Structures are given as C-alpha cells and as structure tokens.
Amino acid sequence: KVGWYNAVLQPAFHLPYPEDTLAFVILSTPSMFDKALKPFVKKERSKIIRDPVDQCVSYHLSRVKEKFPDQRVDVMFDYEILPSRKPKFLAQTAAHVAGAAYYYQRKDVKHDPWGKKKIYGVCIHPKYGGWFAIRGLLLFPDIQVLFLEQPAPVDCVSTEEKRIELLEQFNFHWKDGRYRDIIEVKERYSEEQRVYFATPPAERFRLLGLTQEAQ
C-alpha cells in the first residue's frame, strides 16, 4: 500500500495517492540480463538511444500496462527525478515496506563505528543478496486494498558484525562488489553482466555490439 511507504517518510517524499492505493515494486534479478536485456537489444537495436537497461525496463513495463486496458496504471522508474531534483520515489524504502528486500541503514547498527562519516544504506535480498536491482514502481490509483497485510522483509543480515561489514563494504569498497555476497546467494550476475555494469555507461554500447550511430 502507498500508505506503508508514506508512513515512514517525511511529507516531502510522500506519493500523492490515497493510503490504500495498490502498488508493486519491480525488481530485476540476475537472469534479467540474458532473458530481457539481450533479446531487447537484438530486437530494438535501431531504437536504442540512451541507456539500454532503462529502455529495456521501460519497454517491459509498458507491456505490463497494456495488460490492464481498463485500469489506470502509473509507472515510476528508479532513475526519474522531480523538478526539485528529488527522486520520484525512494526505491530502497519502497522495496523494504513491500517486503521485497531488507533496507539496512546506519540506524540498524547499535554501536556505530563511523563517527561523523556519511553512511548510505543498502537493500539486501534474501535470495540474491546484492545481485539485484530495484527498477520501478507500478501504481494502480483506482484499486484500493483496505485489507492487504504488510509483509515484513526478511532480515537476512541479522548480526551486528555482519551489518557493520555490509555497510563498510557498500560505502567504502562498493566497486569490488563484495557487499553483494554478504549472505549465501542462490544466483549472481554472469561474468558478462558484471563486465557490462563495471564499464562506464558511454562505453557500454560497444559491449552490446551497438554502433556509435545508434548511440
């Protein structure tokens, strides 16, 4: 429910819908690269002009919208920002309140070792660890779900030591990706996918076999 999300945030970040409005948080799993992105690039290569992943997600969510011709469906993407420069929605908070992934933050550590340093939080999925992404939000403004029960996210990094290790790795060593394996995972990004996401965005077109003209 939109109300679960709004309840944990300051009014400036609230979504402008009634609190019982139904919403879905959209995640991409490690297999997205092979099952969605590569077929999309092959099929739509002449139309790819910005980020291929963003366009792929947009394409698939527009197809979901088409499945509900009689419903109003609003889509928000993780990369969208408002004129105020605030993100349209806070993806990690949305994933946490929906029970999709646990958003570990500084407040989840009792004995904080970081002093005045800025520490960012990170979501961990019980099956994929950090090998996933939050891509968007689907909202159904005309559907009110008064009796929907809120599922708690799985607290899979439950010890103080592990939480400190997770936040340390994410904040200070995020490039090596070790934080993604803070728990035992069922599936990881393929080597090809890791290389893709480790490559600067401007050079990713070449990896996908897209020409400079397409870019």
TrEMBL record:
Name a single GO biological process: cobalamin metabolic process
Per its UniProt record, the required cofactor names are:
FMN; FAD
> Where is it found, in Gene Ontology cellular component terms?
cytoplasm
Give a yes or no for keyword NADP in this entry: yes
Q: Where in the cell is it found?
A: Cytoplasm
* Reaction catalyzed: apo-[alkylcobalamin reductase] + adenosylcob(III)alamin + glutathione = S-adenosylglutathione + cob(I)alamin-[alkylcobalamin reductase] + H(+); apo-[alkylcobalamin reductase] + an R-cob(III)alamin + glutathione = cob(I)alamin-[alkylcobalamin reductase] + an S-substituted glutathione + H(+); 2 cob(II)alamin-[cyanocobalamin reductase] + 2 hydrogen cyanide + NADP(+) = 2 cyanocob(III)alamin + 2 apo-[cyanocobalamin reductase] + NADPH + H(+); apo-[alkylcobalamin reductase] + methylcob(III)alamin + glutathione = S-methyl glutathione + cob(I)alamin-[alkylcobalamin reductase] + H(+)
Q: Where is the signal peptide?
A: none
By its UniProt entry, which InterPro entries does this protein fall under? MMACHC
Q: What is its EC number?
A: 1.16.1.6, 2.5.1.151
Extract the GO molecular function terms from the UniProt entry: cobalamin binding; cyanocobalamin reductase (cyanide-eliminating) (NADP+) activity; demethylase activity; FAD binding
Going by the UniProt record, its keywords in alphabetical order are: Cobalamin, Cobalt, Cytoplasm, FAD, Flavoprotein, FMN, NADP, Oxidoreductase
Question: Cytoplasm: present as a keyword of the record?
Answer: yes
Q: Name one Pfam family in it.
A: MMACHC
- Tell me which domain of life the UniProt entry assigns to the organism this sequence originates from: Eukaryota
Entry's family note: Belongs to the MMACHC family.
What's the protein here called?
Cyanocobalamin reductase / alkylcobalamin dealkylase
Can you name the source organism? Pachyramphus minor
